[in-house]
Amino acid sequence: MESSDIYIICIEDEAEVLDAVVRDLEKLEATFPIDTATSAEEGRDLVNKLLDDGKKIGLIVCDHILPGDNGVELLIELHKDEKTMPAKKVLLTGQAGLDDTVKALNEAKLHHYIAKPWSKEELNEVAVNLLTDFVLENEPNVLPFMNVLDAERLSEAIRSGKTLSNE
Questions:
Q1: Which residues pair with 36 in a beta bridge?
Q2: What CATH number does residue 30 fall under?
Q3: Quick one: three-class SS letters along 30-69?
């Protein structure tokens, strides 16, 4: 499949960590373009630019400790905005305490928490699972995503007649 208009956003202030996250998700990038930011403010600007360009935000992988606002505050803010509420949100951090993690789960409707250091397999499994959820919830035609996402879940949606259209 060629690239979709559904983006993966990675927000991390440490360049080597950001590079590792992007590298670990590279098998998804042909279908889901990956864009990056190194602060909450840059992440906010990136999200707004993509939305203004008619793109969708399918997955946000965000560190907790960032310059300026922290990742939990950013994820809560994005969850409260109806344009970014559908995006799946992952907190990837070694720094968030229990209070921040609970706040993210409750207020940002965090979809997953991954502790640093993470494994490539875990990050990919979480990304595929959450992007499958996003596509099932937001895309009228799931066929273009069969080779990249959870084909079994997408096939079940097609069989049940939930998501197939002629777009």
A1: 10
A2: 3.40.50.2300
A3: CCCCEEEECCHHHHHHHHHHHHHCCCEEEEEEECCCCCCC
Sheet (strand 34-37) strand order: 34-37, 6-11, 56-62, 88-93, 112-115
Handedness of CA 103, 124, 2, 166 (dihedral sign): negative
CA distance 148 to 4: 12
Query: Is 135 part of any domain?
Result: no
59 is in which domain, residue-wise? 6-119
31 in a structural domain: yes
State both tokens at 61: 């992988």
Distance CA 126, CA 118 (A): 11
Query: What is the C-alpha to C-alpha distance for residues 167 and 158, in angstroms, rounded to an integer?
Result: 14
Q: What is the pLDDT of residues 45-102, one digit of tens each?
A: 999 999 999 999 999 999 988 998 888 889 989 989 999 999 999 988 876 566 766 6
Q: How many CA atoms lie within 13 A of 151 on its CB side?
A: 4
- Identity at 62, one-letter amino acid code: C
Q: What are phi and psi of 96, to 5 degrees?
A: -70, 130
Residue 143 belongs to a domain = no
The model's pLDDT over 16-35, given as tens digits with 9 standing for 90+, comes to: 999 999 999 999 999 999 99
pTM: 0.91
